[in-house]
Amino acid sequence: MNLNRSPLLQVIDLNVDFKSEGKTTAILKEISFVLEKGETLGIVGESGSGKTITVQSILNLIPTPPLSGISGKILFKDTDLLNCSQTQLRSIRGKEIAYIFQEPMTALNPVLSIGDQIMEMIRTHESTGRKSAFQKAVSLLEEVGIPSPEQRMKNFPHELSGGMRQRAMIAMALSCNPEILLADEPTTALDVTIQAQVLELFKELKQTRGTSIIFVTHDLGVIAEIADKLMVLRQGMIIEEGPLDQIFKSPQQEYTRELISLLGGE
Ligand SMILES: Nc1ncnc2c1ncn2[C@@H]1O[C@H](COP(=O)(O)OP(=O)(O)OP(=O)(O)O)[C@@H](O)[C@H]1O
Ligand SMILES: [Mg+2]
After folding, report:
1. Number of domains into which the chain is organized
2. For a Cys staple, 194 with which of 165, 190, 208, 257, CB 3.0–4.6 Å?
3. Statement to judge: residues 51 and 83 lie in one domain
4. What atom in ligand 1 is closest to the CA of residue 102?
5. Which residues neighbour ligand 2 (ion) by CB within 5 Å?
6. Distance between CA atoms of residues 9 and 172, nearest Å
């Protein structure tokens, strides 16, 4: 291993505590992992295991309360995201690290057309005119496979199907060509056919843009399609991690074995 090369993202001993009604609960315990350039890390685990909180920690998206304590380091290149200014974080969020929410309707603004939302995102991070932002938004919608993108620009989120909304969210996340894409169950709400199409889209992004991806899901079948390496969470702890092939071939934990056997039984 080359010790001089630092990874794109490095999470070191991340601990997250929540407090409610005077009681403190450890939500994440000693989470550490690295993400290299162009790599896709899959995070799997049952509901409530801490997948969303792990990715939200990276961009400081967890509100206080319930957050009562967060410690460790989250190094993006040379910046510790847990210890940088709000201004620094704002310039990284969306532009260098983009987040695709678990539920697109909560992330999209219902009273703005998707075109306006994508253009707003582009213009927040780039000093570009309306016309070129419009063209960029259209080509992004095209890239994520939305037919007649110019017409679709005018649509409001509720006028799109679930699959299209998810694609619009992905287009928005891609608008600033982020180095890292945090995708929180981006295919869970979709039917199987659309799910396969969205997965293809992620694979293409990996290949054509070299985007690094953290892909959260509770579905090992999805992860088998896309991830290079895998991290299994349970009750806020990493119980198993390693290259995808290795974990699929010889899982060390009974829990992972069960997850894989469920997959085989489908
Ligand atoms: N707003 C909140 N207030 C209190 N506890 C919370 C809150 N959000 C999450 N938690 C708790 O934090 C833990 C981790 O939640 P998290 O959302 O990361 O799970 P997850 O692995 O993403 O689950 P899912 O697969 O259902 O999305 C859970 O025990 C959950 O109950
Ligand atoms: Mg979640």
Report:
1. 2
2. 190
3. yes
4. 27
5. 51-52
6. 22
Does one domain contain both 167 and 225?
no
Residue 55 sits in a domain whose CATH number is: 3.40.50.300
How far is residue 189 from each of residues 104, 153, 170, measured CA to CA in Å? 9, 22, 14
Res. 266 pLDDT band, cuts 50 70 90 = very low
Ligand nearest to the CA of 62: 1
Distance 46 CA to ligand 1 centre (A): 11
pTM of the model: 0.89
Q: Residue 111: helix, strand or coil by DSSP?
A: coil
235 CA → ligand 1 middle, Å:
10
Nearest CA to ligand 1 atom 29: 48
CB-side exposure of 141: number of CA atoms within 13 Å?
26
Q: Which atom of ligand 1 is nearest to the CA of 48?
A: 19
- Please write the tens of the pLDDT for every residue from 203-238: 888 888 899 999 998 888 888 889 999 999 999 999
Q: Which domain, by its residues, includes 123?
A: 97-177
